[in-house]
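User: Sequence in, structure out. Go.
Assistant: Echoing your sequence, followed by the structure tokens.
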Amino acid sequence: MALFIPTYFSTISQYTSIVKSNIITFEAEENYQKQSYRNRCYIFGANGKQLLNIPISNTNKISGKIKMRDVVIENSNWQRQHYKSLTTAYNHSPFFEFYKDDLQFIFMDNIWSDYNYDCSIYFKINSWVWIIWF
């Protein structure tokens, strides 16, 4: 059994560990940590390393610890910005055309209205990666 922390587009090492595990568990009751990979990831484009960050709305308003399930995503245009950044960085990469439609579904369609909390987004993205790549 393996226990994983949900992150926004997890690292390759985490996906490798997921493949090797016979039972997979994602921790949804942990405390949210700022400046972590829970709501951010890095991509590499023509100008080097670029940060993609999901804006969180309530972490500054609440003092003390906040559970991942209670973190609310800011209602902004970050989905389109992330999709545009991914497309700009990887559009000419080999095999990107095979993933572009799925990424467009994740970022451009209105599926985000069902996902108010951070954890739900991680499960959606990790499910997509699992289905497409493994």
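User: And one key feature?
Assistant: The longest helix spans residues 118-133.
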